[in-house]
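User: I'll paste a sequence; please echo it back and then give the predicted structure.

Assistant: Echoing your sequence first, then the prediction.
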Amino acid sequence: MTRRTGARWREAEVKAVFVAYALVITVGLVLLLLAGARHA
């Protein structure tokens, strides 16, 4: 559904941003779980 290359680049950027946020959230949750396990 992309008529221009710019649309493809935007889609790629959006996907990259979502992946980056997901990685940051997962890493943060893992660190919190590890910290909680250490304290507990």
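DSSP finds one helix and no strands in the chain. Helices lie at 5-39.
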